[in-house]
Amino acid sequence: MRKPYLIPLEVLGIFLALLWLAPFYLMIVNSLKTKREIFEDTLSPPSKVTFDNYVQAFMELDFLKTFANSVFITVVSVVIIILFSSMAAYALSRVKSKFSTFIFFVFVAAMLIPFQSVMIPLITIFGKFDMLNRGGLIFMYLGFGASLSIFLYHGALNSIPKTLDEAAIIDGANKFQVFWYIIFPMLKPITVTVAILNTIWIWNDYLLPSLVINQQGMETIPLKMFFFFGEYTKQWHLALAGLTLAIIPVIVLYFFAQREIIKGVSDGAVK
Amino acid sequence: MRKQDLTYWLFLMPVLAALVLVVIAPLLLGVYYSFTDWNGIQTKGFVGFDHYKALFQDKRFLDSLWFTIKFSIVSIILINLIGLSLALLVTAKLKTNKALRTIFFMPNLIGGLILGFIWQFIFTKAFAGFGSLVGIESLKGWLSTPNTGFWGLVILMSWQMSGYIMVIYIAYLEGVSSELIEAAEIDGANAFQRFRHIVFPLVAPAFTVSMFLTLSNTFKLYDQNLSLTGGGPYNSTQMVAMEIFNTAFGRYEMAYGQAKAVIFFIIVAVIALLQVYLSKKREVEM
């Protein structure tokens, strides 16, 4: 039975949805106009659609290369975070000792440390030992991403009984085999959450790469976007086309995996 | 597996090494540097509490701290109000509720830097265009005054984060059984009473989580601040994170910037511990 009070709510919902989408709409509509037309009228649809802005933005951003850089750094970092965090959480959850409790506490407490509090010594020290750029960046992502990932894995591991490990050991498996063939597959739901949370964060991160990546041609999308925007600051036709290009990959991914993404983000926050 | 086993250490080592080198060592070194005249390359000697004394006279730092506090308080209230309202809206049995959730949450997937640039266009160009269309002068010149810069940042963050907070409230709201609500309805409770006496107590833990997340996201904000206003006009919308960055990497006052970073850490840690303490206390009382 549908209740009559739902109809105004439906209307309100649609109105709010349009309001939420308005910035994206204005961005796309204006990215299809000429520089002059944006200046004259920002609100109407383009009188004549032009893709010239996109062609120029695509080339200036070196988009394929920049996109590949972002994919490389995000994928490698997330895989490393998943592997090492799950292993560490396994060790901490299976060995119940004061030392394990202490280490777990240190990881959780490290979540409270804002990036700005460690940023200055971190960059100068890693710079001194010539450990900046890709390798250094990925290692730093492991350091910053491990805490939350270990926390989530630890919670999931505590609900997997230890007798399972012992049974496998009796059957002749070694500790690595127990973890990789028996325990790790059981952690799949939490692995999805860990992967989603870290992907969103690393893909969009600007500040850390801006400090660590100093080689030309290695820039990630946010980094390149910042330079691009600085260069074309009053040229909105190019800037908007560039911004649209930058968010297309995210929207496409969201379209295919929205249920998993929303569930992952909500699980990560609530646990 | 036992503590003495090699595998225990092998499993633990990679993340432990990363945490120590990337977070713990820089934090401790940073505290040490903040008491010296470190210039990023070398240290000549200790200066005691000089940086900390200077910092409490530093108008730029105090202004940025005050701006950050004001911004955080206003944003936390708005984001939670809007987020909870959206959650109530999309958990009512609407036909469109799946699509609505998708749309409200969408901004959270896009980086703060990019969102800030998009909104810079909206505030400076689209607002002005709309203003002249309907004849409202005050829609012109947004982001060019401290006040519109402040509200610009608040609007951007509310638009972005409300969908995130909505998702958290939904997780708790969906735990409220519909039988309970129907029973109350039969007993004659009106919509407000049902919300006040059934839904509200059950979603109370969501407030703790949401407050913590919005506070931590707004207080430490950097990307959106950089791309929307860049701290301008005249540093009037510069938040603490940006002020620390500019002190160290803009004016190359490394040790002084680090002293600001230590104060920033202490504030963030105290707020977080207070929050944990208060939520634990409330859980015990309930």
From TrEMBL, chain A:
Pfam family, one: BPD_transp_1
The keyword Membrane is assigned to this record: yes
Chief site of localization: membrane
Sequence ranges assigned to domain ABC transmembrane type-1 in this UniProt record: 67-257
Protein topology in the membrane: Multi-pass membrane protein
Keyword Metal-binding: no
Protein localization: Cell membrane
Annotated transmembrane regions: 7-28, 67-90, 102-126, 138-157, 178-203, 236-257
UniProt keyword list: Cell membrane, Membrane, Transmembrane, Transmembrane helix, Transport
InterPro entries in UniProt: MetI-like, MetI-like_sf
Record-stated family: Belongs to the binding-protein-dependent transport system permease family.
Protein name, as recorded: Raffinose/stachyose/melibiose transport system permease protein
Annotated source species: Cytobacillus eiseniae
From TrEMBL, chain B:
PROSITE patterns the record matches: ABC_TM1
Keyword Transmembrane attached: yes
CDD domains: TM_PBP2
Signal sequence annotation: none
Residues annotated as transmembrane: 7-35, 65-90, 102-122, 150-172, 198-219, 261-278
InterPro entries in the cross-refs: ABC_transporter_permease, MetI-like, MetI-like_sf
Alphabetical UniProt keywords: Cell membrane, Membrane, Transmembrane, Transmembrane helix, Transport
The ABC transmembrane type-1 domain, residue ranges: 65-275
Cell location: Cell membrane
Family statement: Belongs to the binding-protein-dependent transport system permease family.
Protein name: Raffinose/stachyose/melibiose transport system permease protein
